[in-house]
Amino acid sequence: MIVMKFGGTSVANFEAITRTIFIIGGKLDQKPVVVVSALSKITDLLYAISDAAAANDVATTTDLLAQLRKRHVDLTEELLAQSMLKDEAVAKVNELCDGLDKIAMAVCSLGELSDKNKAIIISTGEYLSSTIIAYAMNAKGIRTKWVDSRTMMVTNKSYLKAEPNVAAISERAPGLVAEAYEGMDAIIMQGFVGVTEEGKPTVLGRGGSDYSASLIGMAIDAERIEIWTDVDGVLTADPRKVKNTKYLEKISFEEAAEMAHFGAKVLHPLTIEPAVKKNIPLYVLNSMNPSGKGTAILRNELIEDGVKSVSFKENIKVINIFSTRMINTSGFLRRVFEIFSESKVSVDLISTSEANISVTVDASEKIDPVIKQLSEFADVIVDDDKSQISVIGKNIVRLNGMLKKTFTPLKKTNVYMISQGASFVNISFVVDREELAEVVQDLHDHLFDNPEELETF
């Protein structure tokens, strides 16, 4: 079996879904388990519906619900125009929309939105898209079974950013998938959605469909996991910020994980971990260019040494913690990071000296409680409007001249913090946000124009 995940742009409209079904049809001999996202922009619309309902804005809620229904009904009728399944499919889409209307208007009347109800609302997009595509696949002669992911995607009770229970998923998924496949050419499921042990709906958070696909692939021992998107693979940098980027034919699991964590947008940061557990090859492919090679993400020994990417996080804060109590004192670091953990604030980079700790956090993190607690025993300074840049590649710290090549373009730039990964996969540093675009472009040009200058030692 293989797992094929299609993102929102791959199922955006009639043309995109037709292409997607064609791609799936070419892989039936590999028994595809298809995982789909909501149609492009629909999750944003569902968030807007939940916000309007919570604000008791009946007019806006009603208008947005009508927009959502029309888009899905129109798409269903277009895809199934010549099929005997059209009326049944339209009825099912309307039934799903009726359920959404009911819960949204209930929230509207209360003027209060629980996390559980919000999870139900924003997950509706995946149920609509998977239902429509399942009908369209069957209309094309591909015997397709629609499967509810919540029968196997067990999570904790964090309704809007749920953490999967890997053991429970691994126990449930193989049998359910095998049963669903009886007499079928393919099965289709939803990404992003989950359920607690008690059966209450959850979601995995933004971008969670990639993660869903990887978890399912791990659980069923898939031969490969394919992430179909709207780009030809993983690039050496974000093309929206950097000119002359290049596609990477293959990278390691570790490199991909670092890229995702440090700002690359192609993969959800957690996607890599389940594939690594079973050594399942993962491919990033372009549904708009199905014949393209894409990028293969493989185990470390199959990948050459060298720089693969310049990634970045555009808006971060640097928190500097100074205290003479650090000197020759055990337990100080533990106390500091317990505070971050208790406040659920994620730290990216860490740099320490005898009496100082510097860390970076995303600018969206709520750090006031952290600063308050740290200030009880240390001097704390927060630097805003900073950006974090990471040079990522296998064994880059062992490359002769790597540090010189990395920092040569930074001669006229203020560097506030430097962090070198212990795994030899990344070198990261912090600069002023206003200088990010120029620094990233200069660094990318410098690293990728003359890669032959670097040799492993």
Describe the protein's architecture and organization.
This protein has 457 residues and is of the alpha/beta class. It folds into 2 domains: 2-230, Acetylglutamate kinase-like (Carbamate kinase), CATH 3.40.1160.10; 308-456, VC0802-like (2-Layer Sandwich), CATH 3.30.2130. It has helices at 14-25, 42-54, 58-79, 86-110, 115-122, 124-139, 166-180, 208-219, 253-261, 272-278, 332-342, 368-374, 402-407, 436-449; strands at 2-6, 32-36, 144-146, 154-155, 186-190, 193-196, 201-203, 224-229, 250-252, 282-286, 295-298, 306-322, 350-352, 356-362, 379-394, 399-400, 417-420, 426-432, 455-456. It has an 8-stranded mixed β-sheet, with helices on both faces. A 6-stranded antiparallel β-sheet has the order 13-14-12-15-18-17. A 3-stranded mixed β-sheet has the order 4-6-7. Helix 2 (42-54) runs parallel beside helix 4. The chain is globular. The model has no long low-confidence stretch (mean pLDDT 89).
